[in-house]
Amino acid sequence: MTPNASRSTFSRWLKWLLLLVVLLIVAGVIWRVVGGHGGMPPGGEKGGRGGHRGGAGGPPGMAMMMGGATLVHSGVATTADVPEYLNALGTVIPNASVTVTSRVAGQLEKVFFTEGQKVSAGQLLAQIDPRSYQATLAQYQGDLNQNQALLKSAQLTLVRYQKLAAQDSLSRQDLDTQTATVGQYKGAVAADEAQIASAKLDIDYARITSPISGRVGLRLVDPGNMVQTTDTTGIVVVTQMQPAAVTFSVPQGNIPQLTKALHGGQSLPATAYDQDNSSALAQGEVKFISNQIDTATGTIELKATFPNEDESLFANQFVNLRLQTNILKNATVIPAQALQLSSDGSFVFVINKDNTVTRKAVTTGPTFGEDQQAILKGVEPGDRLVTEGIDRLTNGSKVQLADESKTTATAEAK
Predict the structure, then answer these.
(1) How much is the pTM?
(2) What is the pLDDT of residues 233-266, one digit of tens each?
(3) Fold designation for 87-95+237-328
(4) Domain residue limits, the chain
(5) CATH 2.40.420.20 at 65-77+339-413, yes or no
């Protein structure tokens, strides 16, 4: 290749390179111009401060400004009787639980219940073969008849001896001997009657009945098996879940508040919630408190009772218990949206008469309902508070209420 041809090729490549640079510069300028006007609207802010809620009306994260005032929604502090609650994890226990066992030994003939069935006190559950006890009863009855006959004969003889002794025709020793014989047969008859009563009781025990009203569990012994009085497994377990009880523990610091009510004969309302604490299972009351503190945990145990008419509580079930311990009379209540959190604690924005806001620190109490919050200190009933549009507010900011702005706009349109 000649020197002239090389220079010509280099010149062409240089022209293309310069053209590419110019195109890149033009594209960059166009992108900056278009991007600057198509980005975030002027005056808008991206996101909000932690603990603040977005402004009312307009795009999210941007407060609407009207005449230099921030458009906000508001709520008014009121008064209400606010209940105080104590939460604890509890365990459902039956009001009564009985393992049904046999009081006599023998073969299990029949069972008269279905697993899971609801039974009443005295209802027949099972039958033990009673024939051996019936035979024993017949033997005791025979012995009784024999001894009763001997007793009658001895009594007649005693009457004759008494007449002869009165006529001095019988020695005193013979009379005393016959009197003792009559006493001996009376004792034999009494023993036979006791044995008969015991045999009848064994026959009655062969009919196994439910000692309480409740619901039976799974059958633990099948018919045909031999059962003994020493068996601890039992035939079936009957649990009484109407009413049911829930045992739970609370820190010992709550004892003075609890004993003041419970030792005075009062009861405290309680609600049992499911394991997720999302739905209420039963309503009941607490009447019983233990007489000692568990030194290992520093807690004291209580028991709540529930009618459990729908049997929503099951034995050994874990539940979340909410115990009402007190009621705050005429407490100050605000909308929960008005309460804000910061590193300094809880606060609210109070709207003044000149439509400026003042930031006030508050002391919170228990929640009330789904969207109310009790305030112990910092707010007075009747104070108007900002509930929405808080993200651009500072102490002394000018605000305009959303309801007032709508009314003004409607009046101007007319």
Answers:
(1) 0.61
(2) 899 999 999 899 999 999 988 888 888 778 777 7
(3) Elongation Factor Tu (Ef-tu); domain 3 (2.40.30)
(4) 1-33, 65-77+339-413, 87-95+237-328, 105-227
(5) yes
pLDDT digit string, tens, across residues 32-41: 655 444 444 4
Q: What is the 3-state secondary structure (H, E, C) of the chain?
A: CCHHHHHHHHHHHHHHHHHHHHHHHHHHHHHHHHHHHHCCCCCCCCCCCCCCCCCCCCCCCCCCEECCEEEEEEEECEEEEEEEEEEEEEEEEEEEEEEECCCCCEEEEEECCCCCCEECCCCEEEEECCHHHHHHHHHHHHHHHHHHHHHHHHHHHHHHHHHHHHCCCCCHHHHHHHHHHHHHHHHHHHHHHHHHHHHHHHHHHCEEECCCCEEECCCCCCCCCEECCCCCCCCEEEEEEEEEEEEEEEEHHHHHHHHHHHCCCCCEEEEEECCCCCCEEEEEEEEEECCCCECCCCEEEEEEEECCCCCCCCCCCEEEEEEEEEEEEEEEEEEHHHCEEECCEEEEEEECCCCEEEEEECEEEEEECCCEEEEEECCCCCCEEEEECCCCCCCCCEEEEHHHHHHHHHHHHC
* Alpha-carbon gap, residue 231 to 235, rounded angstroms: 9
Q: Going by CATH, does the domain composed of 105-227 fall within 3.40.50.300?
A: no
